[in-house]
Fold this sequence. Notes:
The protein contains six helices and 55 strands.
Amino acid sequence: xxDPQGILCADAGRVGDLVTEKGxxxxxxxxPHVQLACSTQYCAFPVDRNALCVWSTEDPLYQPLxxxxxxxxxxxxxxxxxxxxxxxxxxxxxxxxxxxxDECRQKALQGLTPRGVVVGTLLGKVLCLRLxxxxxxxxxxxxxxxxxxxxxxxxxxxxxxxVVTAAEFCPWQTHILISVSEDRSFKVWDHHMxxxxxxxxVLTASPLLSLVLDAENRQLVTGCANGQLWIFSLVEGHHxxxxxxxxLKKKRESFSRRIESxxxxxxGESQRTCTDGLGKGEEVEAxxxxxxxxxxxxxxxxxxECGGLSSENTTCLWIGSSVGLFIFNxxxxxxxxxxxxxxxxxxxxxxxxxxxxxxxxGDEKAICLLTSLFGRKIAMxxxxxxxxxxxxxxxxxxxxxxxxxxxxLPAAVKDQPLVFHSQVRSSGYWLACGFANHLSLVFRxxxxxxxxxxxxxxxxxxxxxxxxxxxxxxxxxxxxTLRLWSLRRAELVLCVGxxxxxxxVGSAQFYYIxxxxxxxxxxxxxxxxYHVDTCKDEIQRCVVCPSVPxxxxxxxxxxxTGLSVNRVGTDLVLAAGRNRTLEVFDLNAGRSAxxxxxxxxxxxxxxxxxxxxxxxTQQHQVxxxxxxTATGDSIKLWDLRTLRCERCFEGHxxxxxxxxxxxxxxxxxxASGAEDRHAYVYDVGSSTFSHRLxxxxxxxxxxxxxxxxxxxxxPCGRGSTSLPTRLSSCFLYLLAFVLVKSCxx
Length: 745
């Protein structure tokens, strides 16, 4: 079997338990920008301009196979999808050749020259090629055209205005081909008919370089030369909507800040370099071109390390760039791990020109094939994914935190109507709204009749909250007062004046089955006990309470912007400050239990917990989920036990107004207001919206689910409240139905 010239070494040397350089090749000619190929057993790359080298990833000492047949430099290589026979396709300006790896190896062992089948000739410079799921058709991207090859040219797909840089067959619709180009757009083709299905607009100022399709979530992910990722939904009916756009450089900087205070637990040489490299990400080049994208299975690793509810179904991607590798989470749009080549100085390649990554499902190792940008080297790396991820994860962040009570919960009552007794009124009949005109209104849930008016505040009403029994309403205002109202008599029963609080009350709610009132005043959390006086004297009723001691203070926050507590008797309270920090307070201990720095790019204006319902049953662990939202940012879904963002919800515009969010009582949906006069409903298992509800005439500032009917309510910026909108697939039962109106002047 002929050896390729320039083989320097196999098993070139260990760089630590994190990365192993399994092999290194020096080619006669540099090949910085070529399409490389990796499979679970082999990797393939061009050497010496026109020779194809196939290397075993399982045993690099096994003699490599060299295939010759091209006269021009090889520019693209791709493996087939079938395990047996394993096909490999190579392309140059002169030929596109299909090789059967088993036949070629057998001929080489017999001393014969392996031969492939020429399926295309003189197509031009090929930058990308892909084989269809059944390996019968090859998509060859040459210049601005895509040639569909079998034993001859079947179709010539034309439409791109720039060089086609990547293409992928759709795994769940085999007749669909998607391509990206230097014209900065992507196109969707029916390659059976040779027709164009969809043509995107220009996405960015830089060329699109790479492409991958996520079959589980049915999404398209493309990367461009300026380090941006664009994610689009391919779900039927979504019309190729953009899910989100990610700046890889900003994500890397954010990731570095999150872990810079912790020492990376890497052995040997890499322990020091990992800490230094991650903490000084600005020293790396400004742009991070996305050279390659590949699936990455972290389900077993994240489940073992984090134990989050969605870790088992998490989909991740390998992102190959010129300076390193990144593991990107498609659920929360955050980086799970970063590997910079420069942090491992024993690696032969520090700046890559091309990159290909392959990892088995459930395997803790991955193979990475690199070509040097400035040299003639080609290296094969083995990456220990489990070690990489574990070294950069938050250890035992929220292991002991849970909203579930320590004692055994009573058995759930199943299959009972909403009203247990004919003389007991259930919840869901009333809708409370706070307005900027100093009023609080209580409507019937069906929005019929005349609302009850609660007047008395001298400022915009910032918070309204129902009591546990639904008989009283708590309101807080920018005038600095806190008022308690009787719903039955539509009158004030308690007023706490401005002198009690050092700063205006930001938010307030009942706590511990109406025993206390929990509120935020400036950076402080305060817990009030109260007594409703039956005295009819208005002066005596609006008592001046003694000063209230501070319960907890959010460190570094000038003002608390969000507050939330669950209803299941927990001691944990969630708070957010203007310093963009989320903090978990243990009221029993009177101290902070955990903190999440830089939870959003802007201060959080609402925290919403999955409080469930007495009339529906959820898994106990689901109650540990909570959502946060900030102006100009996405909605983030968190798991209290891990303090991880499990998913981001993108798609609703909220650039200038604080739009409210709400959990459905069944826990399956999160609803949000938006500035485009719509309410958006997200399924917690998807990052893009499932329903877009129209009908408003202004910005939708708040949303709330009905506890007794499958519907959602939402007010808009002009103070009106829309008619209920039905969600046919959602169970919605809850003890109280509250709608918080944002303070808009």
